[in-house]
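3.2 Worked example (two chains)
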Amino acid sequence: MSRAWAWVQLAIAWLPMWGLFTAVIMIVHGNAIGDAAIGSARMIGPGAALGVVIYKLLARLPWPHPFRLRFVAIHVLGAVGYATVWYALICLIDSVVIGHFTLMIGPGFPMFLFTGIWLYFIVAGVTYANLAAQRTAQMQAHAARMQLDTLRAQLHPHFLFNALHAVVQLIPMDPRGATRAAEQLAAALRTMLEERRDLISLAEEWAFVERYLAIECIRFGERLEVHVQIDESARAALLPSFALQTLVENAVRHGAAPRVEPTRVTISAALAGAMLTIKVADNGTGADLGSVEHGTGTGLRRLRERLRWLYGDRARLLVASEPGGGFVAELAVPHGVDDSADSAQRHE
């Protein structure tokens, strides 16, 4: 929150009090609304300024658990001190306006003391409510961060197992191909271990997916055909890290692996209004959508959970398939642009 906006909120919070004091002055003393508004401003202004001081001080005095009487005593003394200083400031301002020292008699010091104590406890209540809301938001953000880290970490062994399986299968049949695949795997793993961002540019994600596909193309040879159509305007758009890799890996694992015939995997990405839309389709054996949606250990399920944590209901992942009819996955996320995607790596 910017400092200017914080001051605006503070002013808005004290406006009802200013209106109340203005109405009281008009009713009790019969002043015109202009004079009453000026008079109440001379009272509310010091109270609001002291309220800022109280807010900063109470931020260092957390609500105790368990509750202690010492905490109550501190606030009672603070309320009396606030009321006394508030009254003194009102008298000082009136003395400056009139031109000589004067005491604001009005309804009497006891009434000012009571009103000042009342204002103090309003400020204290708002302060502790705000601090509690901030702590709740921080805890929720921390929980979301832990959940996202867990989901992202779960993708790593899933990918590693499949990639190592591909390398192992190549060793007896194509030792040189296995060597090249191992080198590609090492580069991919380096990226996975170093990547800590939740959102990366599509260009960066595609660079990682290309390494993965290089491994699988060595493994499958002519049995795997990859067609790519990524709009240039979409390359700087942001998406969850390893999201495209999850979709492509799903297509290769469930589309190409079970087949002897060549399998075509088509990857497309484009901007559509405020959304980045990515589509990965294969003409493989297809799958039962019930088992895909509710199966354990699927990368699609983890991806859906990450989308929910990152975007709420603003993102979607749709899948379509039928036995023998291939598999289609379409991901749509809110369009954001990484301005540094073409020049440098951006880390959190």
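3.2.1 Second chain
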Amino acid sequence: MNRFAKEQQKEKSGSMTNFFVKNSVLVSVLLVTALGPMATEAASESDRLEKLERAVEQLQKRNTELEAEVQSLKQQTAAVPDSKFKTKVMDDGKTYVEKAVPEVAKPPLFVQQRGPELKLVLGGFIQMNFEDGDVSAFEGRFGETALKDRFRLRRARINLTGDFAEQFDFKMEGDFENSDGLNSNRTAFEATDIFINWHQYPWAQIKVGQWKAPFGLEQLTPDTTLYTVERTLPTGAITPERQIGVQLWGKPFATMWPGQADLLTYYAGIFNGNGRNTTNNDNNNFMYVGRLESMLLKDVFGKGSFLKLGADILNSRDDQGTNISQSLTLLVNSDGSLSPFVLPGPDERTAWSVDAWLRMGPFDLIGEFLQEHVNPRTVNGVPPGFDEFTTDGFYVTGAYYLIPKKLQAVVQWQHLNPGQKGNDGISSIVAGLNYYIRGDDIKLMVNYFHTWSDFRDANPEFGEDQFDEVIGRMQLMF
């Protein structure tokens, strides 16, 4: 206990002693006052008893008050530890003195939601990349679209999810990515997923807002749980990514057969079709997307094992100026590299895909094939300005835990045929290691890419046709 606290307690003890002495004198005076007249005046027995009773009542009342004050002083002293006293300069009427006084605790800070939400969860994640070699060559970025070695803040997202009124769930998420808020050529903070989902009936749920259109297994796999650092080139070139629209989806067996709720899941969505964070549709037509997936052989080959099969279909009618490659890699340039495909005229697109995912213990095998046909349209007698083409591609990924739940080895083969020039395919082989420090919450990844261009191999005048890159990633989820 510090000096000031001891002085404070000493003062309190002295005050209590003086208090008892003064009141003892008061008691004596009262007794003399009560007994004196009785001895000299020879009052009746009833008068003496009445005066004694009044004196006793006064003493009892005063004693009760004293006990209450003493108990209050003891509680104050015991409730405030040494570290909770603070020094305060006080004026005692003659001079300024320092005294130790109890420090009043500040109330804690808390946040309360405005609405009647049943659950609110605040979270997010950060992914930081180191990229060296022929950066993003596996995405067709070489030659005139080549990139330089770099550190890259790949994703920096914050999100809020919750349940509302027992029948709705929602999500709001934004991405800071590489924005520094200063340069106009940097990516600014923007929305990724913003939607409301009505889930009263598991077999018929309705979702509205912005999220990933239900097309492509790899595209629909969360960024934080992928086995490779980046998604494959076929996924980036063909899948529609995030769109604004409405979707009916559900699990038909969730109610009648709860143990096999994942046996069948369907998705049917209608979207603007011209990308995310775009307030206007490019025309009066919409993009229609559907997906079916089935989880088979669940836990048959051990706990957590399964075979998942999926199929997708898409149709969209787009106007001139629409970017139909959300990953910015579909248009084949003169040197065989790829860049965004912004339509020079109206088109109609039809795409489909099939996929499979087998998990058996520490082993995963994932494969997907995708194809898209782009057919130009003549509108009001104006030719579209480009020829029809068909793009297709595939990937096969294998993963195995060398150390259960800690160290995972990954290999992948991917190929895209843009279909716009003769023999314009791009292929890559990927080898990687994933180290799970704390599951996907804290994860280290490293991938080696070897990429080759069929177009450049057939046309050596454009330069190298073999490319190599190493990408390392640190991931943190919170």
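3.3 Remarks
Residues 3-102 form one domain.
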